[in-house]
Amino acid sequence: MSTEPTRRGRKAAKTSPAASAAPAPAAAPVAPSRPPAAIADRAGMRQVADRAGVAMSSVSRVLSGHPDVSAAMRSRVMAAVEELGYEPNMLAQMLRKGATQTIGFVVGDISNPLLAQIALGAEVALRAAGYAMLLTNSVNQPNLDATHIRLLQQRRVDGLLLSLSDETNDQTIEALSATPTPSVLIDRDLRTRTEESAVLSDHAAGITQAVEHLVGLGHRRIALIAGSPHVRPTRERINALEEAVEAHPEVHAQVRPGAFTEVHGGAATRELLDGRRPPTAIIAGGNQILVGVLGELAARQVRIPDDISLVTCDDVPLAKFFTPTLATIGRDPYEMGAEAAALLLARFGGAEPGVITLPTSFTGGRSCAAPPRTAPPAQGERP
Amino acid sequence: MSTEPTRRGRKAAKTSPAASAAPAPAAAPVAPSRPPAAIADRAGMRQVADRAGVAMSSVSRVLSGHPDVSAAMRSRVMAAVEELGYEPNMLAQMLRKGATQTIGFVVGDISNPLLAQIALGAEVALRAAGYAMLLTNSVNQPNLDATHIRLLQQRRVDGLLLSLSDETNDQTIEALSATPTPSVLIDRDLRTRTEESAVLSDHAAGITQAVEHLVGLGHRRIALIAGSPHVRPTRERINALEEAVEAHPEVHAQVRPGAFTEVHGGAATRELLDGRRPPTAIIAGGNQILVGVLGELAARQVRIPDDISLVTCDDVPLAKFFTPTLATIGRDPYEMGAEAAALLLARFGGAEPGVITLPTSFTGGRSCAAPPRTAPPAQGERP
DNA sequence: CACTGTACTGGAACGGATTCCAGTACGAGA
DNA sequence: TCTCGTACTGGAATCCGTTCCAGTACAGTG
Fold first, then answer.
1. Which CATH number fits domain B202-331: 3.30.70.2470, 1.20.1050.10, 3.40.50.700, 3.40.50.2300?
2. Which nucleotide is nearest to A37 (CA to C1')?
3. Low complexity bias located where (chains A, B) (predicted)?
4. pLDDT digits over B232-262, tens only?
5. Over the stretch A306-316, which tens digit does the pLDDT of each residue have?
6. pLDDT in the model for residue B318
């Protein structure tokens, strides 16, 4: 807190208060905001038509590239358009055409770098196709998902990109059922529905590779601290871990789903280390969770990888300079966004809902090593 | 690349192909999409009026809470609304009222965590006030700023939040001048204009504190690797550094503006370390730059803080577990977003453009220590 | 009882474009 | 020369609410 927030008004732009004769055409006497529309009296298609001495329908045809237009007509209209600096009112077009060229993105929290990159990939691809993106953050409150779906629906978006906070929420399912627009799920799976397209990550592959790596190093007790059990990535990771250890009967797996938060990461770590069979390797299921895990490990002075090995999910840029370098199960979120956009655009083009699965891959790092000879000291027991 | 991307269609939802008698009311013979509008023939206000046996204007009054409505009228209308599941078409409302309840956010790159948090803060505040947020990424191409301002203008947004890629771009200034809607600059300063509100960070305070700290530790050669010279944060930081060292004639400051990229961070570090008077402390002006700096330092096996001290700007969550802990000039991006939203809402309420400055603060860390007795070896000279 | 005011309601214009339909004009073929 | 087709154009309906204006009915007052 170095500096107090400062509020100060700027001097108004106008220099002369109110005296100078306004060149505005016949301003209404005192009416403050009588005609609510026509903010800056921009020219409409009507004015263009009058100016060119043609019908509005002809102006519309010229502007929309209709074939039945003579060269003479085209040039007259274009001249009038130039002179008046006419720009069509998209609102009117939307109303008439019933399409807004807008899609809604429902996301838990855009400040999550993973989701931000997905949003970027999607926005760039959609904009290239002439669509704009409306963003809503559910701040990980499941009922807000439904609220936002309805809200975007009222705004008549043409499609929806959904990174839901909770796949099992009834309100969400209901809101989705009531939605006539095509939607794409982003790493989510609504088992009860098939109307939605989806972009998925192959979490199983990454987890399997990580487990094999850890087992190869000699680990026999592996824990996964996962996020919310109500979303696909968590389920997939848990399933994958359990399947992977089935192939190694000597390996014991523990799973701690909860939430994608630092708090859960810390709490689960504490629980695991204080437990009867503390793991020799932890897989952290997300950025925030990782922060919590690291915090708890640091507090206990548990060394990585000497005392415990660590793998994390979903890369963050700084991770590569972390000491020791973090073994990571990564994926390409930008591409996920781009693919989600492509899937949506395909639906606009008449395609059926589709599902696409993108790879994940495990990258080793110094944070993984052979487990210590003796289990790490289960210090920090409650008194 | 563990897994190939997989594309597979889902089975269509409908089980019976086309035989079953559609319960749809009097479907047009074969017409694929004749009436473009009325996607799902939802009831309009007209239908509600007919059903209730009243005029549309009365329905409108009831729904908009107009005072001149009898209780009888209200209940009749509400009943009809319920029965038909009527929802007003926001598009028509927007067109008529000339307000879209939508604001546009022009941002360089939403995947930058700083900007993502700003976006989150802004979106939450705006949504609470009934506004939706349209997001565009300029991917740090200055001309796209202008393009997007115009694009959002065409969509008739009520206001603009601007994190411009380049304050000096003529097209951007021009686009802004042609814009009738209120705008808020986010840590940007358009010296030629006073029409915009702005949320600023007090970068000077943070830099000054950092410099004092470094000088106190004994540093005499301090470098700032900054981002694009065309945005306010860079200018402010450079100015602050130069002013801060003026108070200490024995201190030599070097400045390397460039871009907010990892590449620039690395290149500038190389340049500085290979220079005649390599710095004993570096201030990295942003996340990406930091990554480049760290990369170069690691490549040269320059130790932090033994060989060189390091300060970074703009916190990232993982930074606190970085070894050594990073000294940071931080600020609260979420609040910046929230304040930007507040400033915009204030303008909608009739207020004049305003400027608010939020604090930054320096937090020390293990990455800063006394400079080495001898200047760090200027190894790595080009052959 | 007549008059004025109040409380409410209906009708219609409006916002700004799209698109169907009907028409005009002109060239070509019979 | 008449007819038909083609190429183009204008008019009007439409999308769906909002809001101004005029009007009705009834209560209150002189």
1. 3.40.50.2300
2. C15
3. 14-36
4. 999 999 999 999 999 999 999 999 999 999 9
5. 999 999 999 88
6. 77
